[in-house]
Structure formats: C-alpha cells, structure tokens
Amino acid sequence: MSANQGASAAKTLAAIKTLGFTHVLVIPDSESARLYTAINEDPDIDLIQPTREGESIAIAAGLWTGGQKPLVLIQNTGFMEAGDALRGCGMGPRVPLRLMVGWRGYGGAMAEKLPIDSAYTYTEPLLKAWGIPYWPLMSDDDLPALEQMDRTAEETSMPAAVITGYAFTE
Amino acid sequence: MIERMDLFRAVHARRTDEITVLTMSATLQYPLVSDHELDFDFLAFGMGHAGDFGLGLALARPERKVIVFKGDGGQLMSLGSLVTLGRYAPGNLLVLFLENRVYEQTGSQSFSDRVDFDTLARGAGIEGGGATGKGKIERIETIEAFEEALPRLLTEEGPHFVICPVVNHEHVPPTSHTNHAGRIQKLRKGLGLPAGG
Lengths: 170, 197
Known about the structure:
- The complex is a heterodimer of chains A (170) and B (197).
- Chain A is an alpha/beta fold.
- Chain A has helices spanning 9-18, 33-40, 53-65, 76-81, 83-91, 106-110, 118-130, 144-156, and strands spanning 23-26, 46-48, 70-75, 98-102, 134-136, 160-164.
- Chain A has a single domain (9-164), classed as Rossmann fold (3-Layer(aba) Sandwich).
- Chain A is built from 8 helices and 6 strands; from the N terminus they run αβαβαβααβααβαβ.
- With 197 residues, chain B is of the alpha/beta class.
- Chain B has one domain (2-190): 3-Layer(aba) Sandwich (Rossmann fold).
- In chain B, helix 1 packs parallel to helix 7.
- Chain B is globular and about 45 Å long.
- The termini of chain B are far apart.
- The interface between A and B is large, with 35 and 36 residues.
C-alpha cells in the first residue's frame, strides 16, 4: 500500500471505464465528492443518485439482471444501512454486485486521532461477516484492486468490494 | 375497490413480452394465473425494494415494459424511493401500486389511515417527472376502469405510477423463500443473458 493518501478521481474514473462499468450508483459523501463530480461530468457512464443505500443495491441488482454493469459507490455507514438489500439482492440470489465502500474514519484511526469513529471500527468486521472479499484502494498504486474486485465478482457471481480510506484527490 | 386476482388476470390476459416484478402477496397469487419466463418473484429479495429493482431493470432494458406490482407496506419502508422514481424512472416503467392499507401477509395489521399515497407520489415529483418528464400518476378504482386503461398503460410512454385500491377474497398459497439464485437466472435466461458473472 502506498504512503500516498487518496486515489486520483480522474485515474479511478479511467479505471472504472476500462472495466466497462455502465452505471455508478452513489449518494454523495465527503470522501467521494471528487469522484462523484468526475463521474457526473463523464458522458459515457450514467450516474444514479438514490436516496438511501438499500435502494442503490436493489437498483444495481436490477441493472445487472437486465444485462448492465453497475458499480455501487457507498460509504461504510450506508453499507451498514443497506444490510437487508445486500442480503436479498446480492448474496442470496448470487448477484455479483461490485462495491466501492468508503471507509469513513480510517484516516483518523491511522493518525491515532481520538475518539475513533465507530464507522471505522465496524467496517472490516462487517465485510468479513458478510463474506464479501475486499481490497484496499488507498492511492493510485492500488488501482489494480478494482480489476481484482471486478474479476472476483465475475468468477464467483457474488458481491466483492474495494474499500477507500481517504478522500479522492483531483 | 378492485379484487386483486381480477387485476392479475387482466394483466396476464393483456401482457406479452413485458417483465413483471412480483412482490409480497402478488408472488403467491400471480403465479396461479401466469407462468411466464419473464415473471420475477421478488418476495425474498428485500421488502421495500421491488420498485428499485424494477427501476434498474427498466433502465437496463428500455426496449420492453417493466411492470412492478408494488405493495403499500413495502412502499412505507422506502418512501425516498419515490423521489428516485420521480427523477430517474424511464418511460418503460409501469408501477401498479396495490393499495390494501394493511400488512396482509402478517395478519392484516393496519398502518396509519392518514397516509395519502397519491400526495406522496406527487410530492416526490413523479407527475411530469421521471427521465422522460412525462411521468403520470393515476388512481384506478374499479376492474372495469383498469381493463379499459391497461392497453394504454402497456403501450404509452411513461413512467406510470398507478394506484389501485385492492381487496382479496381468494386463496393465498403459502410463502416460499427458496431458490433465490435460480429465480434471477431464470429471468436472465428469459432476457437472453448468461446466468451469472
């Protein structure tokens, strides 16, 4: 993992397009704001902004069932909210949801800033409890993790994730 | 008030290559009249999210109508999704909102009798909204009016959000929560897609 903090939004978008994603479902959050802007300004990918993360999961499942390739960009707090949708529309029916989970609280925890954000504390245990394989995406050096996540979802027909610990840079 | 099975029979009689997304009691009763490869049972997939799933399907398959049978109890679990429909719902999405004002499957417990779904849908921007700017909210209260409107609803550009007050006096088979993956695979096969991946 690189010491650099935060992947480039432009390079991440380029990687998302290379992998053939057709739609990105995202509810704005501070850490992913630059990536949101980059996706929103790109004419080749459709950005859909639901009102709650469980919606994102179900819409993505419908898109995939219909033959599209969605990416769900979701903060860890929303990932926690979306549990039943993830169960029902992901794991249960073996829908290969591709997730980019924002790990809110990671930067502060790494800097040993107190208090520790409980959203940080429960993110990895929750991913493990769901049995969702995940890879860190903390800098541009980690961008190949997107392909690994995508390939794993494809091969297993199950959800897979990358987790981002820092805000995206330009 | 519309007898729910009569509504299902009317849809089955008119429907050709449309996808139907079934929720709650519809998943149990609609198969009594239909065994189409594009019928999708959403019961075990997450209460409140059938409309979201149908939205994704409709966006993915603009060439065919997607009919979602949506229950009012499920809608209360995801009121925000009305706002999403008001912004993104494409012209090929038809939501048949089955309003019985109770949680029928669990013993017909009631929810607030002050809820007005027509007002909620309008407040969410569905009328004149959706991706086409042609969203329509309708309220159809008799089977005769429903049968008359159905040919138009199946061909006219939407999105449509049609509130149908329903009752049920017919048999409801027992719930089945099995073979989730198989149900998705059946629908994808019906759409000419590989099962997984």
